[in-house]
Task: structure prediction
Amino acid sequence: MGLANSLDSYLILASALFGIGTFGFLARRNAISMLMSIELMLNGVNLAIVAFGSFIPDLMADGSIIALMVIAVAAAEATVGLAIIIAIYRNRQTPLVDEYDAMRR
Amino acid sequence: MRAWLYLITAAVAGAVVTTPALLVFVLGGGSVDDALFVALATLMLVSALLVVTMRDIIRCGLAMIVAFLALAGIYVIVGAPLVAATQVIVYIGAISVLILFAIMLTQSKAAPARLVFQTQAAPAAVAAVILVVLVALAVGATDWGETATRVRLATDTLARVLFDDYVLPFEVVSVLLLAAVIGGVFIAKREKEPG
Result:
């Protein structure tokens, strides 16, 4: 079998995680659910980066380090995103994104 | 009664996760690594699906923690234990707790989540499936020039590369985190404008 030793299995797993995150981001109504879906998508990309770093000889050390950078940027993104959601909730009293319609009325 | 329900749910979940791994291990003749990979991948995909489909958002947050933990295990299997440790510390320790706190701050009883999905949920599912199929086809059709086995890199090698070649991105990321923390506190704490 050799599933754990083939780059393709990791990449397909990463794309499946990214696809689940895409569906969640497009389909959920709750703003925090959308943010969680973005975290899933970032994790999928990160898995692809780490897998490349572990299988491609030219990228041996770079893969893990780029993945660490992505994790740090994801932490920053989650901080600012949740702060924005909390600020909007304070004004509109709802976490559902389809009720944030102030700019299209 | 509730305790039995939880036990049965846990047994079903364990069976769902371990059955493909056992199939790979026993019938497919895979190694222990393969079985672990399949078990963790199944756990991760199932809990990720639960994250995007469950009704109760706090349970979505808890399922997200399970997905992150399974992904940390996959990082260990692929040969990046440092990334796995960072995943546990940053994602499970920090981001998940942040998201759970934000859930508790923003979900009100006045707005019950009766409708979990937008109206475009079905097209979104189709689009996501098409995306995954396209990426899988591209992955299968490409020759990456990869090594035959995965390579585990020593952590001190990683540290040397990080603090030699990647010093500037490292410092930029630290400034970015500082800016994000200050910006987050500023946006979340701002009171109503006077007048």
Q: What stands out?
A: Residues 2-27 of chain B form the longest helix (26 residues). The radius of gyration of chain B is 21 Å. Residues 7 and 174 of chain B are 45 Å apart (CA to CA). Residues 154-195 of chain B form one domain.
